[in-house]
Design goal:
- Helix 1 packs across helix 7 and helix 2 packs parallel to helix 3.
- By secondary structure, this protein is α/β, with parallel strands linked by helices.
- The strands form two sheets. A six-stranded mixed beta sheet has the order 3-2-1-4-5-6. A three-stranded antiparallel beta sheet has the order 7-8-9, with helices on both faces.
- The protein has eight helices and nine strands.
- The chain has one domain: UDP-N-acetylmuramoyl-L-alanine:D-glutamate ligase.
């Protein structure tokens, strides 16, 4: 059994964040553990409130896991302020954490800012150089680079610029593209496109969390990078296909669709 740690915020509706990460880990056959960085009050309609966890408690959670349990991969999601980011970076360096996947969560689907503006530079400086893969979507890539917009033609340039910030590889997620959901992987030498159509599906809550967690899981399972991204994208595609309504807004993807689609 491979053991995966997610460091992220809690989603009270269960569709994204820590909850989505743990569901993804379970669905892919790895054991999930968690370090909570923030508690959000949210549902399918949006985020109502966020309460951050203190730096000392974030450190204590990381230490408690690593001093007892072998960790084969780490997914980092919502990290809202500079102090938490610095602590995570320091702790993961101390424990020599492997297979780090950084998903730079910045804004919720409903438009709520999940990463404070003053924390963006800290995230770039502290966490991106530690990442085996960083997985921004198009708006997040624009924010990290300080540019206005990205289309498919500009994704290769953006991937190169993000790679200069230190991660081993960059996956820019193209779900916000107009005509397709094509993702671009850059490993510092080669570009690889992973193409998929847009699905006619309203319920997409947790897609980014799910993909980055699936990437972390497959890396820990020993797959090479391109196979990892392909398998993670195939898993997410099926989870979106089988997504379901929940509440009155945007429902979650179906993390366990391979076990039952009834």
């Amino acid at each position: 059994m491979k053991n995966l740690l997610t460091i992220a915020g809690s989603d009270s509706s269960g569709g994204a964040g820590i909850q989505a990460d743990l569901k993804t880990f379970s669905a892919l056959g790895v054991y999930g553990m968690s370090v909570i960085t923030a508690v959000t009050a949210q549902n399918t309609l949006g985020v109502d409130e966020v309460a951050e966890i203190g730096r000392d408690m974030v450190k204590a959670q990381i230490d408690a896991v690593f001093k007892d349990i072998p960790v084969h991969g780490v997914k980092i999601g919502m990290v809202s302020n500079p102090e938490i980011i610095k602590q995570i970076a320091s702790s993961l360096k101390e424990w020599k954490a492997p297979n780090i996947v950084v998903d730079p969560v910045m804004i919720s689907k409903s438009g709520y800012a999940l990463l404070k503006p003053e924390a963006v530079e800290t995230l770039k400086r502290e966490l991106l150089p530690m990442a085996r893969v960083v997985t921004p979507n198009l708006p997040e890539a624009c924010c990290l680079l300080g540019i206005e917009a990205l289309d498919e033609e500009g994704m290769e340039f953006a991937a190169q610029e993000l790679h200069r910030l230190g991660p081993e590889s960059v996956l820019i997620k193209g779900g916000h593209l107009k005509d397709a959901a094509n993702d671009l992987l850059f490993d510092g030498e080669d570009f690889s496109w992973f193409k998929a159509p847009h699905l006619n599906q309203k319920h997409t809550h947790g897609t980014g969390c799910t993909l980055s967690s699936a990437i972390a899981a497959h890396l820990a399972l020993g797959y090479e990078l391109q196979t990892t991204v392909q398998k993670a994208k195939e898993y997410l595609f099926g989870a979106i296909e089988q997504a379901f309504p929940l509440g009155h807004g945007v429902g979650p993807v179906h993390h366990f669709y391979r076990m039952t689609c009834r």
